[in-house]
């Protein structure tokens, strides 16, 4: 394997202009260049349909709710550790329900505000729908976990959680729409 010269293979499509195409192949198509897109800032593109904002609001509520629920449940765990007697258990359970509902409502307001402020054609209805979707998903996760409540208890819990989620998100969507109206039309850069 000493000093043997390397063989170069012909490149398909290479050849002099007007030369015959390689055996079995067609003539190489003419190369096209892609147009360069330049945005002047005035054309923001097509608005998302309103139902997209329901999904975006749902994700935003979950993202806001998880850290809030983590903080609330850490505080509640410390309360349970301090209150060792059975008399305090009722007040701790009430605090557990109330603080978790408050955390969910705050997350709903935040997600609804996002939908109302940046939602294009989306508004209060889509914000409320995103809160209802999150509530139904949370309810389904709790149901799958198997906490004992009975059929009537689960139905009542669904109604309460959907009401809290949709009302809080509706309020956030209203605040977002007011904020959008106060800022005026978007300015070009």
Describe this structure in words.
The chain is an all-alpha fold and 189 residues long. The chain is 63% helix and 0% strand. The chain is built from 4 helices and no strands. Helix 1 runs antiparallel to helix 2 (89-118) and helix 3 (124-145) packs antiparallel against helix 4. The protein is elongated, with a radius of gyration of 30 Å. The termini are far apart. The relative contact order is 0.14.
Structural class: mainly alpha
- Quaternary state of this entry equals single chain
Overall pLDDT score: 81
What summary fits the major beta sheet? Answer: none
Order of helices and strands: HHHH
Globally, the shape reads elongated
Query: If you compute it from the alpha carbons, what radius of gyration comes out, rounded to the nearest whole angstrom?
Result: 30 Å
Q: How many alpha or pi helices?
A: 4
Proportion of strand residues:
under 5%
Query: What is the terminal-to-terminal distance?
Result: 66 Å
Which blocks of ≥5 consecutive residues have pLDDT under 50? Answer: none
Q: What is the β-strand count?
A: 0
Helix content: 55-70%
């Amino acid at each position: 394997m000493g000093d043997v010269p390397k063989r170069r293979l012909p490149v398909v499509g290479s050849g002099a202009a007007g030369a015959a195409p390689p055996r079995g192949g067609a003539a190489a198509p003419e190369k096209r260049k892609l147009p360069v897109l330049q945005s002047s800032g005035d054309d923001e593109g097509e608005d998302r349909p309103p139902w997209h904002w329901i999904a975006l609001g749902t994700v935003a509520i979950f993202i806001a709710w998880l850290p809030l629920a983590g903080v609330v449940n850490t505080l509640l765990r410390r309360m349970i550790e301090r209150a060792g007697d059975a008399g305090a258990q009722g007040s701790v359970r009430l605090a557990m329900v109330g603080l978790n509902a408050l955390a969910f409502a705050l997350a709903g307001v935040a997600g609804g505000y996002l939908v109302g402020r940046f939602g294009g054609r989306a508004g209060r209805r889509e914000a409320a729908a995103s809160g209802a979707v999150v509530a139904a998903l949370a309810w389904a996760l709790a149901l799958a976990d198997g906490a004992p409540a009975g059929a009537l208890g689960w139905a009542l819990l669904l109604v309460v959680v959907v009401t809290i989620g949709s009302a809080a998100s509706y309020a956030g969507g209203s605040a977002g729409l007011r904020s959008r109206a106060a800022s005026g039309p978007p300015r070009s850069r």
